[in-house]
């Protein structure tokens, strides 16, 4: 056994043991995090404004600190961005993770000396948990690639800022730097298509063992590799063993990936965001990702069905139930307080606490009261493809409220894999399969179909690379950007309608 593999196994055992200590004491762990957060922020502007010195319990906290999103917290963040100290958290942040907001342009998410280490440790621990469970560590001696944003950072009022993945790139441990790809020069390329081609050039002859990134963008990398090498990725990289992903559900891409790779490989799902690293898949045998309860984040959960009520109940970790769709609310050691990040999740296990991401509270279709969520459309498509050779590159769903004729419907824009010979002979038949699966999952949608309010969904084919063209048109090609799985309007549809008119 190589020395690196041996050391990795020893380290994996330690991390596993440490994880078990807090995972087996979830409520106490969260209470400790809560107390530390409140104590550390009492003297901040936010802490004084919300009387943190009087907060002893979660009930006290929920009475004094309302749920906020970025826009509602912006007045405080604005002061931090302009260089003021002790506003949301003690001192100044080390970095700002710059993300693209939907309503106000760029968003600046603070990263502090207390919060940043957890972003780095969580990704590392996900791999170490995999090593502990499988007993496999040979891949640590091979090359690893992480498809991410540019590590080039700007500066604003003395604080560096950039994409989260670019910031984290500055903290790659020394023992991984020789294994890590692509090169710094290639990683700094801003144009995504140029960057992927350069990554192919650098990696095509290497011993790649671990590949990580958002599935839609890794797919682009794999397609270029397969085209260049004229062989499956799994044959080109014979020791490729582990695919690490986050940001979107892998299931809609799985069949396509296995075709590109030519064999199955293990995968690890992550749940990272600029606001915090929330969970990672800790087991190849269990469904869901381990919610990280000791990472400087205090979690609250609001039932999605109650979220838009005037005063929805805010649940803590000891109060959640299986199978309920919750909106995730966080308070962090980066100074985000009762912050709505917009993600929804569902618990798959309560011992330990494991979750799956079900979508975005703003990404749903409820034009007729059906409230369809991302998890439902992804599961329905997967069910419709079972037992077929149909593979899908990408898809999104929007409502058609005012069709030229007939009843309204949900329109599914699907980019099928052009290499697949068994594309649906009849899109209408395939639509019926998806529709049947949707009706099983969502009783409101089923009622609307039964009541002749909606008709069966309609599939519109998207040409090859059509979604890449759309993302490029809005300046979000590559990196950590993701295509919305659902929209409650027809903005995305209009892009393809305009192209058809031309």
Keywords, separated by commas or semicolons:
single chain, 18 strands, four-stranded mixed beta sheet, 502 residues, alpha/beta, 21% strand
Give a structural overview.
The protein has 502 residues and is of the alpha/beta class. Helix content is 38%, strand content 21%. The protein is built from 18 helices and 18 strands. It has helices at residues 3-23, 26-41, 45-49, 58-64, 70-81, 116-134, 164-168, 174-177, 184-187, 192-203, 215-229, 233-236, 251-261, 374-385, 427-441, 443-450, 466-473, 491-501; strands at residues 95-100, 106-111, 143-146, 154-156, 159-162, 180-181, 208-212, 242-246, 266-273, 276-280, 289-291, 297-303, 326-332, 339-350, 353-360, 392-400, 409-416, 458-461. Strands 6-3-7-8-9-10-11-15-14-13-12 form an 11-stranded mixed sheet. Helix 10 crosses helix 11 and helix 15 (427-441) packs across helix 16 (443-450). The chain is globular. The model has no long low-confidence stretch (mean pLDDT 89).
């Amino acid at each position: 056994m190589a020395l690196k593999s041996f050391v990795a196994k020893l380290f994996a055992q330690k991390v596993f043991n440490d994880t078990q200590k807090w995972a087996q004491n979830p409520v106490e762990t969260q209470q400790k995090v809560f107390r530390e957060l409140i104590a550390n922020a009492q003297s901040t502007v936010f802490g004084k404004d919300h009387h943190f010195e009087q907060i002893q319990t979660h009930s006290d906290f929920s009475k004094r600190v309302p749920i906020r999103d970025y826009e509602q917290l912006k007045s405080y963040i604005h002061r931090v961005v302009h260089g003021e100290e002790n506003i949301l958290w003690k001192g100044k942040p080390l970095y700002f993770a710059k993300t693209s907001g939907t309503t106000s342009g760029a968003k600046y998410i603070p990263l502090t000396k207390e919060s940043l280490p957890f972003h780095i440790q969580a990704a590392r621990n996900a791999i170490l948990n995999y090593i502990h469970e499988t007993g496999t560590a040979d891949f640590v001696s091979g090359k690893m690639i992480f498809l991410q944003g540019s590590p080039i950072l700007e500066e604003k009022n003395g604080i560096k800022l950039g994409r989260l993945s670019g910031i984290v790139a500055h903290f790659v441990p020394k023992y991984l730097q020789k294994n890590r790809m692509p090169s710094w020069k290639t990683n700094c390329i801003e144009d995504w298509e140029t960057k992927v081609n350069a990554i192919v050039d650098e990696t095509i002859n290497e011993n790649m063992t671990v590949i990580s990134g958002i599935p839609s963008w890794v797919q682009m990398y794999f397609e270029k590799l397969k085209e260049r090498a004229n062989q499956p990725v799994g044959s080109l990289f014979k020791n490729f063993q582990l695919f690490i992903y986050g940001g979107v559900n892998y299931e809609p891409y799985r069949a396509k990936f296995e075709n590109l790779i030519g064999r199955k490989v293990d995968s690890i799902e992550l749940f990272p965001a600029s606001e915090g690293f929330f969970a990672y898949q800790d087991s190849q045998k269990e469904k869901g990702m381990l919610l990280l309860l000791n990472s400087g984040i205090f979690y609250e959960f609001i039932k999605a069905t109650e979220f838009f009520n005037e005063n929805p109940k805010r649940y803590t970790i000891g109060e959640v139930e299986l199978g309920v769709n919750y909106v995730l609310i966080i308070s962090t050691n980066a100074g985000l307080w009762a912050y709505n990040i917009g993600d929804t999740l569902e618990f798959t296990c309560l011992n330990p606490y494991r979750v799956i991401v079900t979508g975005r509270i703003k990404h749903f279709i409820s034009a007729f009261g059906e409230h369809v969520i991302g998890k439902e459309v992804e599961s329905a498509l997967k069910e419709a493809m079972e037992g077929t050779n149909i593979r899908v590159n990408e898809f999104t769903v929007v409502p058609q409220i005012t069709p030229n004729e007939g009843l309204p419907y949900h329109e599914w824009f699907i980019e099928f894999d052009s290499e697949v010979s068994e594309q649906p002979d009849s899109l209408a038949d395939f639509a019926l399969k998806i529709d049947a699966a949707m009706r099983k999952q969502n009783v409101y949608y089923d009622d609307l179909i039964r009541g002749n309010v909606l008709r069966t969904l309609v599939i519109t084919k998207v040409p090859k690379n059509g979604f890449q063209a759309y993302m490029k048109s809005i300046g979000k090609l590559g990196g950590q950007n993701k295509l919305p799985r659902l929209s409650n309007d027809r903005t995305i549809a209009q892009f393809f309608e305009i192209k058809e008119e031309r």
